[in-house]
Amino acid sequence: MNQSATPCLPLGDIHGGAAMFHHILIPTDGSPLSTEAVKKGIEFARHIGASVTLVSAIEPFNILTTNSEQLARTQDEYTRYAREEAARHLEDAGKLAKKAAVACNVVQIEHPHPYQAIIQTAQEKGCDLIAMASHGRRGVAALVIGSETAKVLTHSKIPVLVYR
User: What percent helix, strand, coil does the chain show, rounded to 5?
Assistant: First the structure.
């Protein structure tokens, strides 16, 4: 598992009152729903005087093949692309936080299970809330496909605010 962190604005004591939440983790995958959750999470953080950690979890490349050259080349291309896309999503989200004058930190992490990476990052960074999007799957699709949000809700001991 690889992890990198970059500050958007200095994290510090920006809490003037007794807000219930002081440090919010906001995952992003760059999707339109995720971007809306980032905007709403940053606005919520601004309103209550909390700082944020923005996280993008990259799943490692997984494919079965017998051609090791093809696998290595494809894996390298995937990894480079995934890291660049995650960095771009985090940069965009960081700009939103900076514009809102919300102290933030960004983390890009590689993990085979994004929901675990989200929970782990929240714990390591001392977050007291996770704010994330729900893709709103229902019925059989929800049972078969599942969602990272549902897994975070199921496994996190940290409160989760879900934007739909």
Answer: 45, 20, 35
